[in-house]
Amino acid sequence: MVVKIEGIKQTEVEKLKIISETTFAETFAKDNTPEDLAAFLEQNYNYSQLEKELANKNSFFYFIYQQNELAGYLKLNINEAQSEDGTKEALEIERIYILNAFKGQGLGKQFITFAEKTAREKNKSEIWLGVWEHNPSAIAFYKKMGFVKTGQHIFTIGCDDQTDWIMTKILNDKNSGGLLK
After folding, report:
1. Per CATH, the architecture of 3-125 is what?
2. Per the residue annotation, which of 45, 62, 73, 142 is the catalytic one?
3. What is the pTM of this model?
4. How far, in Å, CA of 6 to CA of 70, rounded?
5. Tens-digit pLDDT profile for residues 100-152
6. Cβ neighbours of 166 (radius 10 Å)
7. Sheet-wide strand order for 160-170
8. Cα 164 to chain center, whole Å?
9. In the beta sheet, which residues pair with residue 3?
10. Residue 47 is among the residues annotated as catalytic for this protein
11. Given this model, what pLDDT does residue 84 score?
């Protein structure tokens, strides 16, 4: 299986919009009203919002391809781009979405490994993310990848306030045996 992770260019905003809407709907449509889902998609995945996010120097977007087919995308944040008041020592995985047709093929693990590598390159000592409390398969996956629950926050879809768990993974520097500084 040939897998490729590539940075998303500003000129690829339409492709990002389509995959953002598709993967979010595939993941959450069954658990939300059509009105709430539509409101969320319009607010968060419109062209203007995505162009603004792509232009942020502290946010990083990546597509993942399997056999040259677009399979998902990843959004990472550092510093003030983090969606919560995070520490300067942290990298946030804000979005990690894989199309249903590609789930269960190890792409999520490749994204986590890629995020860890990116965090180390940016001298970050931890990675954190938010995951819906009613998404047991995602929670189990993140636990398997070494994340632990460290808090929670509200994630609003349309008019529905939902609880996301904050999960964090401390990165160890294998060369020195200690935390990255």
Report:
1. 3-Layer(aba) Sandwich (3.40)
2. 142
3. 0.92
4. 10
5. 999 999 999 999 999 999 999 999 999 999 999 999 999 999 999 999 999 99
6. 18
7. 3-7, 59-66, 69-78, 90-98, 126-132, 160-170, 148-157
8. 13
9. 66
10. no
11. 84
